[in-house]
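ping. complex inputs:
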Amino acid sequence: MQTWETRLVREPPPRLRVEHELRYELAAPLVRRAALWADLGCGSGVAAEHASAGFEGRAVLVDSAPDALEHAGRLVAHATTLQADLATPEGVEQVRTTLLADPPPGERVVTCFETLAHLERFAPLVELLGVLAQDERFTVLLSVPNDAFWALENPLHPTVWGEGSFEELRGLLPEPLVVLRQVPLAGSAVVVEGQVAGGLTLPGVDLGGELVPSHFIAAFGPSAHELGPRARAAGVDADAERRRERQRESDLAVLEARLADPGPPPG
Amino acid sequence: MKVAFVLNNLGLYGGVGIVVEHARRLRADHGMDAQLVLAPRERRADWTHAGLVDVPVRTLDEARGERWDLAVATWWETLPAIYELDAARRAYFVQSMEERFYGPGEPERAAAALTHDLPLAFITEARWIAEQLRALQPGATVLYVRNGIDKAVFGPVPSPPVALDGPLRIVVEGSPDVPLKGVPDALAAAAAMREPHTVTLVCADREAATAAGARADRVVGPLTPAQMADLYDDCDVVLKLSRVEGMSAPPLEGFHRGATCVVSPVTGHEEYVVDGFNGVVVGWDDEHGCARALDLLARDRGHLHFLRVNALATARAWPSTGRSAETMALALARIARLPSPDPTGSGARVLAAARAAMEEHAVQRRDHQRLQTRMDRVERIMSRGPLRAARKLASRVRRS
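pong. complex structure:
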């Protein structure tokens, strides 16, 4: 089932969380050896934390939501936070100034996962990413969701992305460009009762044929060519998922009842 | 950034409307000084495109005296004008491979084809055009910017109504006089249906279509976009059997209002039509096959609704004109930032295209001369009068 949750917190459905963590794992080898890493649209930093293990450089976490940013600042080591609205030229200029003011020598990486879809206007940010890669030697990784496939009207995504819009976007990014398609997997496991099945090895998965991607990932800049296939799997906490679904159903019923009968005006 | 979009006219053409809307949005939302420059000396047949009041329209003479960051040709005949402008960069917004608008013997065909060999950055609305341009000029900058739909007018309906019964309501759009639009084919296919249906033909010249005996229950037009949206609201199927399109808008506009489509496999349909999922793609020149496809939709209302639901979902994900202008702004900025295309190779391409056109012309000329020789012979015989009279004359001569 497609859902709207995009702000990653500790309890999202496993599929969303694995997808997000995988993107950061993809970036992790580049981040680990970078002197400067910017995560644009970092949210609460839960997934960014995955990329930051072993990172010794300077991290700049950018988001428009102060509470999420404060949370991210606590999770990611060596991080400074910047509250900026990436949908505006002013917010993008703040990022540019922060990143280019006295950058430390060494490799530079920008991650910008699932951020463009949250922006009413994405042109200023896309232009900045191009400039950072072309003129300032940043390696940039960005992703957009394939919302168009499901025709999801996500209230948190003012711009719809999909195969067509990604095709438009890739022409606007600097060459050489590495394009990756993130595809969903399904699985199941058998475990022995009473035994902890940590580090379970999964067999090879045949991804032959044209699978519809859940996300499109583009990488460009000096180290983009190092990226390659990668997968991640996680157990499903069905108990938490059930609680979550039932909570949604219950909340929805209550809200609909309130809408139908708002009751006497307050006071 | 100061951008000149060079147009050939401001007539009632979809392609002109798209350029006008881009210019308006680029000015209003992206801080660009986008202007329209008319290439011909005389203005012809202006149409009140929405948004035209917000965009300066300049003559070529006026524009020639100014410095431009970017000059963008929008039709093959506007190419010479962009070279007359003092512009830092030049680009070509290609909305179709325009040589296809002309027949094999027409000189414009070769001239239009030749413009795709020029060393320019290209922007186009459809992937099939992008692929052709990349094949013609490997390494050229070819940027893809889809035409947006004005969601203020064609805002997607919440859900398509379920039409369990009643005649299948078909809309055909286009002038019957323009062969490339395939309107007579569409009307003939609808007329060949067995199931109950109604056909509404929308065309700019309603009286001419009626006088020509267009086989439709109703002929309307010209319609404003808002009137088109109202028409699609009362429609199940947009029937479009065009032979040449860059990317046809009417079926997609119909999608927004809850209609599905039956289309020919014309170039650009693949941008949004998936056969059997959100519309039906029928074969070329298959009047009866098309009629049977329409009959199926008229009979199987479950299938009709399935197509309409998916058509609406496709519409929801399609970019608005605002989104399209944002991508256009990025495309123009990228072209302005990139160095001018290397003209090496362009001369060879242009000469090769000219050579091909010349040889095609030579073949046509030989055919013409051969026909002329035959016609001369026929005319000589005809000039001697009717054959029977000639025989009588011959026998009289023999008798005498």
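The CA atoms of residues 148 and 320 of chain B lie 4 Å apart.
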